[in-house]
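Suppose a colleague, Dr. K., hands you the sequence of a protein chain of 69 amino acids and asks what its three-dimensional shape might be. Before reaching for any lab equipment, you can write down a predicted structure in token form. Begin with the sequence itself:
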Amino acid sequence: MLEFIDIDLARAAVLILLIIAFLGIWAWAWSHKRKAEFQAASMLPLEEDDGRIPNYHNESDGKNPGTKE
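The predicted structure, expressed as tokens, is then:
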């Protein structure tokens, strides 16, 4: 029964499975349901020790206090 399976056929099957897995992970990562989670994760480097995210933007003049504008 397994006489017709050679190394090239096995490699092709593994390649097809890996392509399907890659496309599945890609679709999962770019789904709209994950946008809020990724937005929260993108703010993690900016968090202070107490867990709050500082607002560096001054809404009154629209300038960033860290710039020389």
